[in-house]
Amino acid sequence: MTAIPDRAPGLDPRPAPPAPAGDASGWADRRAWIEEYFDRTAAAAWARLTSTEPVSRIRATVRAGRDEMRGVLASWLPADLTGQRVLDAGCGPGQLSVALAARGARVVAVDVARTLVELAEARLPHDLGGGHIDFACGDMLDPAFGTFDYVVAMDSLIHYRPADQVAALSRLAPRVRRGILFTFPPRTGALAVMHAIGRLFPRGHRAPAVEPVREARLRRLLAGAPALRGWRPGRTHRVARGFYISQALELLAP
Question: Does the pLDDT of residue 48 top 60, yes or no?
Answer without folding.
Answer: yes
